[in-house]
Fold these 2 entries.
Entry 1:
Amino acid sequence: MNTADTPTADTPTVVTSDDDAVHCGRERIDALDAQITALVLSRVEASRQIQAARVADGGRRVDLRRETEIIGRYSAALGRPGIAIAMALLELGRGRA
Ligand SMILES: O=C(O)C(=O)C[C@]1(C(=O)O)C=C[C@@H](O)C=C1
């Protein structure tokens, strides 16, 4: 929608196909974000269970070799932002290193 299409107090709101595309796109993004958030929470739970099992077995809560492998995987798939995503996921699962 360009400035000429922007509704004012004097003009009625006209829904254009641009508006539809933005609205539909945002609905899709909102649904994807809800799925991503649910997946992140599932990952947090899985991570906590692994850590608890390792600690109960006398091991360390953190496994840096595994973390390096995960960060490498996200980096290969998504580049530099993938590293930030992997580190955020790891922090959510184990707390601050
Ligand atoms: O894979 C493991 O061994 C885990 O404990 C899970 C996890 C993770 O969240 O991915 C969490 C802590 C470890 O330092 C490494 C990885």
Note: DSSP finds three helices and no strands in the chain.
Entry 2:
Amino acid sequence: MTASSAPPRTPARLSVRGLTKHFGTVRAVEDLTFDVSPGHVTGFLGPNGAGKTTTLRMLVGLTTPTAGTATIGGVRYTELTDPARTIGVALEASTFHPGRSARAHLQMFAPAAGADAARVEQLLALVGLTGDAHRRVGGYSTGMRQRLALATALLGDPDILVLDEPTNGLDPAGIAWLRSFMRGFADSGRTVLVSSHILSEVQHSVDDVVIVAHGRLVHASPLAALAALAVRTVTVDSPDRAALTDLVTRRGWASEPAGAGAPGALRLLHVRAAEIGAAAFAAGVELHLLTEDAPGLEDVFLRLTGQTTGVAA
Ligand SMILES: Nc1ncnc2c1ncn2[C@@H]1O[C@H](COP(=O)(O)OP(=O)(O)OP(=O)(O)O)[C@@H](O)[C@H]1O
């Protein structure tokens, strides 16, 4: 399956400038600034409650910012002359009338988006819902609702697609399909902004990442630049953990608990296994675990968003 064949009318850049939203004392989004480029898939990442959905809602005029702006091709959503052709949005927990079929749902929204009956059928086929299109949405699984939300977002054949946690509830085949769909959409010069709280779910789909935590921007770069932040680590353990801890302290190595994969072991940062082995040998500390870990992007993400415990350098 491929993205719609129509060429983009305007390569539209999304720009967020000083965007802020407070709900009473809750600072959901705080002075957020980032751009999303046409022709790219951008991952909008952060842990639960980081402010992703609130940001996306402000982008499409559903929530009023406390301060700052979110613009699409230079204008606010409410000022767009043809919003359905410009931006399609599938927000988290999209609500559908439970008694309506998927086909009836799309047919109801089609006129406002300038879509005809043929487009509705084309979209049902695209998202793999043709066989279930006559069924009441109330009986749909989470993944089927996600597919319907995507079809709804695509009704107006938009230049920009904003997807909030679209992999929630999707089966592996659905995730693989969504990945290639987003790639095709971006490769046709259009723009995709996709949110997730798990980097690994989107890391094979995105060109750029915008990472938020506690409503604030913590990192924005091409995905490749994020990989460069990966820290070399070595997992190490000894039958004499007190002696090992003493050695680590004396050497000044940054360390943290290795976690569930190796309970009680230490993970050392910014140091090579050979150096640790030599130092342990010289100090007479027996090691029964000494493993260089492949630096993982998820680790970088967890560190940037403060989701790790322990002492990192
Ligand atoms: N309407 C609201 N009233 C009060 N607080 C709200 C409202 N909407 C969001 N919040 C709060 O704002 C913060 C950010 O929520 P938001 O849903 O934007 O985060 P998120 O990054 O999308 O999280 P998740 O990954 O769990 O969906 C949270 O503390 C949330 O409780």
Note: The radius of gyration is 24 Å.
